[in-house]
Amino acid sequence: GGTPEDRENYVLLAQTLREEFEREAVFKNKPRLLLSVSIAHHEKFLPGYDIASFNTYMDFISVICYDYHFSYESAVNHHSPLYSLEEDSDYSYDAKININYTIHYFMELADPAKLVLGIPTFGRTYKLENPEDTTLGSYADGPGDKGPSTGEKGFFAYFEICNFVNNENWTVVQTKPGYAGPYAYRGNQWVCYDDIAMIRHKVAYAKQNGLSGVMFWTIDYDDFLGNCQTDTFPLIRTARNALLSSDSMPIPDSGNQNTLEDDNRPPTVRPRPTPSVTPPLVRSDVRPQKKPLTILPRALPPLATPRTPASDRNDYAEQSDGV
């Protein structure tokens, strides 16, 4: 990810690449190469990106809308909620830890038609402190066991999750419809993930907010062999079909996104520090930056017409437990 000290150089890199792509397109009489960037939602990375300047030079800005929560946290939670799952109150840390808040922050700085909503084809796993306490917000005792294929603690690919659910008697619980995907558990193992229904909700959200589309991390974490469904790549195919469909589905009212029905309210968990920030997850402890660099566009050759982006375009960001 970017750092606050290098944000100006990153914009200069984007500007230089764009200019060279334009020149190459004219010189070789071919469509211009596309330029894109993936940006994490996390407070650690946002100060490293001048999003408004990227909007000038990038064709697409992929927003990494997952890993809002991690398996090293003290309570289980969904890592890619569309809306907040925490009750509406004066103390609502999670009100900003969701896709809707992140996307609207980016929409203030960039053209929505350039934004690409990132969707995970993996789940975050936890080891429950008490196997009888399985609801959102329950205490966790570290990351869950390694997946049989992926071999990483705190992480299952979707093809592993769907196999557990279909063949190994995991219990599936749906959160509030349209707000976040389900979670599943067996014994002291717990995982949150996006299912086909949640993929449809996220695509509908992207379409109704005028976004460019969606991307996935990653292709090979989907059920690529079709072992769980009747077709291969069920999550990605669902997204593609929903993007191409003229039908629309309602999305939850964002004005009421923090209100849960009494019978679906997560339990209170141990307090977390209240963030003293206005933008989503932008830290206040980052040292002051220099005056923002104003970059005046240099004269460019006539624009070449880029090829129409493919519907299955994917951008990838570096993945780690700290992303």
From TrEMBL:
InterPro entries assigned to the protein according to its UniProt record, in alphabetical order: Chitinase_II/V-like_cat, Chitinase_insertion_sf, GH, Glyco_hydro18_cat, Glycosyl_Hydrlase_18
Cellular compartments per GO CC: extracellular region
Residues of the GH18 domain: 1-246
GO biological process: carbohydrate metabolic process; chitin catabolic process
Region of interest called Disordered, as start-end residue ranges on this chain: 246-323
Database matches in SUPFAM superfamilies: (Trans)glycosidases (SSF51445), Chitinase insertion domain (SSF54556)
Compositionally biased region (Pro residues): 268-278
Sorted UniProt keywords: Disulfide bond
Compositional bias annotation for Polar residues: 246-259
Pfam families assigned to the protein according to its UniProt record, in alphabetical order: Glyco_hydro_18 (PF00704)
GO terms of molecular function: chitin binding; chitinase activity
Name this polypeptide is given: GH18 domain-containing protein
Source superkingdom: Eukaryota
